[in-house]
UniProtKB/TrEMBL annotation:
Protein name, entry field: rRNA maturation RNase YbeY
Coiled-coil regions listed: none
Biological classification of the source: Bacteria, Pseudomonadati, Bacteroidota, Bacteroidia, Bacteroidales
PANTHER family xrefs: ENDORIBONUCLEASE YBEY, CHLOROPLASTIC (PTHR46986:SF1)
Source organism per UniProt: Prevotella scopos JCM 17725
Cofactor: Zn(2+)
Key words of the record: Endonuclease, Hydrolase, Metal-binding, Nuclease, Zinc
Keyword Nuclease set for record: yes
One GO term (biological process): rRNA processing
Length: 103
């Protein structure tokens, strides 16, 4: 689901008890070996982050979508060393995506 800043803040408050904005919230409903979940993405934050990190909007949106899918695959980013593992997998997936699109 693509939302604005206010909606992502509302979802973050209601479901996670967090009072801050974020680019993505992943709800994981996986059962056995079947990936299943919802990704809630703030397009406002994606746009701001693209400018902040000097990336294209499309690249930043792809990174955020990949980030959510990686969460559904069981990769976390909150514990010691996990952020680096997440970023490494994001970068690999982004590279594959660019290769597949001929970039």
């Amino acid at each position: 689901m693509f939302v604005d800043d206010e909606k992502i803040l509302e979802v973050n408050n209601e479901y996670l008890g967090h009072d801050y904005y974020t680019d993505i919230i992943t709800f994981d409903y996986d059962e056995d070996d079947v990936l299943n979940g919802d990704l809630v993405i703030s397009l406002d934050i994606v746009r701001s982050n693209a400018e902040l990190f000097k990336k294209s909007y499309e690249d930043e949106l792809n990174r955020v979508i990949i980030h959510g899918i990686l969460h559904l695959c069981g990769i976390n980013d909150k514990g010691p060393g996990e952020r680096e593992i997440m970023e490494e997998n994001e970068n690999k997936a982004l590279t594959l995506l660019k290769e597949m699109s001929g970039e």
